[in-house]
Design goal:
The complex is a heterodimer of chains A (194) and B (65).
Chain A (H helix, E strand, L loop, with lengths): L1 H47 L13 H26 L3 H28 L8 H32 L9 H26 L1
Chain B lengths: L2 H27 L5 H24 L7
Helix pairs in contact in B: 1-2
Classes of the chains: A mainly alpha (194), B mainly alpha (65).
């Protein structure tokens, strides 16, 4: 009897989790649209300008940004391993990889703060500065929110909220973190490579 | 060895490690059919693209200094 009730409960959870996942993906798509709009504006300004970056404006350091990018991409890999660990009911491994992801996220934010304080350009200094600080700042804010999200799901996991069968919160956190990684691929290419 | 050279080496080695992890995970995810699994596959593929860009930057093929 109890087993039947548990099965019905699991089925209901799976159905609700499917709807929540769809809702969360719509949220990520809407966030993509926001970033896409800002990127479009940046490309418009860039193409309208005869010289880019404008005369007298220095580009941000390429290789420091490359290292910072790898730190963030590495956090995407550790988050994926954390998700795989919870699917196998290995909470210890999950905790280790989630803590690693949080540390790497904080390292990325520190790298970005270092870059901001060493740039010879300001938000109001040029169109390049305005675009750079708006887009990378918005991304940095997303990383900051992601770190808080990860700390929250880590605490919830340690309290036993999630199981191998019931872990929608972790799925959402993992997808959000991957999203933040992928947005940085586009920003790194636009501001440092292109 | 100057700071730039060290940054390039770290970026290059890190990019190879992360790309390897992403591709291995992508291979493991490949047969899964859930909606979240499909999204994860796209994200891992794009993560690999990011690593390739970093490799090109580190070896001096792409990027403006």
């Amino acid at each position: 009897m109890a087993s039947h009730a548990a099965t019905a409960d699991d089925a209901l959870y799976t159905e609700v989790a499917g709807q929540r996942l769809l809702g969360f993906l719509f949220f990520l798509i809407s966030d993509c649209v926001i970033f896409g709009s800002f990127i479009f504006v940046y490309l418009y300004i860039r193409n309208a300008s005869p010289v880019w970056p404008p005369a007298g404006v220095e580009r941000p350091g390429l290789y420091l940004a490359a290292v910072n990018s790898i730190v963030l991409f590495g956090s995407g890999a550790t988050m994926h391993y954390a998700m795989e660990a919870i699917r196998r009911a290995n909470v210890r491994r999950f905790t280790a990889f989630t803590v690693a992801t949080i540390i790497l996220g904080c390292m990325f934010l520190s790298g970005q703060a270092y870059e901001y304080t060493h740039l010879h350009d300001t938000w109001a200094g040029s169109t390049f500065g305005a675009s750079f600080f708006t887009l990378t700042g918005m991304h940095g804010f997303h990383v900051f929110i992601g770190v808080i999200f990860l700390i929250t799901v880590l605490v919830q996991t340690l309290r036993g909220t999630y199981t191998p069968m019931r872990h929608f919160g972790l799925t959402a956190a993992t997808l959000y973190w991957h999203f933040v990684d992928v947005i940085w691929v586009a920003l790194f290419f636009l501001f440092y490579v292109y | 060895m100057n700071a730039t050279a060290i940054e390039r080496i770290i970026a290059l080695l890190g990019a190879f490690v992360v790309a390897g992890c992403a591709l291995t995970s992508l291979r493991a995810e490949w047969k899964k059919t859930g909606l979240d699994d499909h999204v994860t596959k796209i994200m891992l593929a794009l993560l690999t693209v990011g690593c390739i860009i970093v490799v090109l930057v580190a070896v001096g093929v792409a990027g403006r200094t």
